[in-house]
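Usage

Read records sequentially. Each one opens with the input sequence:
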Amino acid sequence: MKTFLFELISSEKIIYSGLISEVLIPTKLGLVGIRSGHADMVCQTVAGKIVVNNNEKEFEVGEGFLEVTLAKTTVLILL
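and closes with the structure output:
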């Protein structure tokens, strides 16, 4: 499976940055699954659990923003 760069960032630090194959992110649109090649998008995230690579890593997060581009996927968490 192809990988892509995923970054989870708070206002204080980079919580996670690395190559992954998929991520599930809670958003106002519902649970969004991102894989390599996903269409560009920007949306608001909600409090919940971000799941990386089929439960390999999990992060409890608050509200924030999601940006998906061909180069990377970034979640900015507001504190």
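Summary fields computed downstream for this record:
- The first strand starts at residue 4 and ends at 10.
- The chain has a mean pLDDT of 95.
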